Amino acid sequence: EGEVFTGVAAFNHHYASWGAAAGLGSKLGAFVQGSANMIQSYGIPLNIALAVMAVFIVSFAATTVDSATRIQRYVIVELATAYKFKPLQGRQVATVFAVITAFLLAFYDGSGKGALKLWPLFGSVNQLLAGLALLVTTIYLARRKTNIMFTAVPMVFMIIMTGWAMVYNINKYFSEANWLLFGIGLAVFLLELWMILESVIVLKDVYSKEVGLPAAVA
After folding, report:
1. Rounded Cα distance, 37 and 41, in Å
2. CB count, 10 Å around CB of 142?
3. Cα–Cα distance for residue pair 7/23, rounded to 1 Å
4. Burial of 166 (0-12, 13-18, 19+ CB in 10 A)
5. What are the pLDDT digits (tens) for 29-79?
6. Which residue in 75, 122, 69 sits closest to 100, CA to CA?
7. What DSSP character marks residue 145?
8. How many Å from the N-terminal Cα to the C-terminal Cα in the chain?
């Protein structure tokens, strides 16, 4: 106990079984240990290398939480401003609201890992975000009278495939009575449809006014 493994011995110890490699702590430990072993090969003492990598992990986690909180605060403020809900238009109040909602999501089941229950949605939602980003870019290029095919083609593919995956997941969660993922997945899918509809209206306006789309596809 307390022995530090390196090289092949470290690999065999960590991957002795699927159970041994399971869990967030085991994965982080493997990353820290493996990186420290690599740094040690350059002549840096192992204890120092372990400390450096541990600081990197903690710093990454802290900056991730900070960035997520800031983005959520921006979204809350913009929504509150758009719908004229003054209590959440202030930065401080919106930040507190963002932190409290994240806290409730993480600890609502008492484990502190409540947010991991949303992980099954990450893949489809992440790729859906990419498709919507391409959609916004396509509209921008259309208004700028620029060729839109470079973004329109991958955008259509991404939205169709991710929408298909989302519908599949929604049906799956409904059949499993997983109402948390079903509700969030359905809300995300409806928001996707809403954004697509708004984009179609904008593109139709571009067509009718001959601002950019005819020239872009010419």
Report:
1. 7
2. 25
3. 22
4. buried
5. 778 888 888 888 889 898 899 899 989 989 998 998 889 899 999 999 998
6. 69
7. T
8. 71
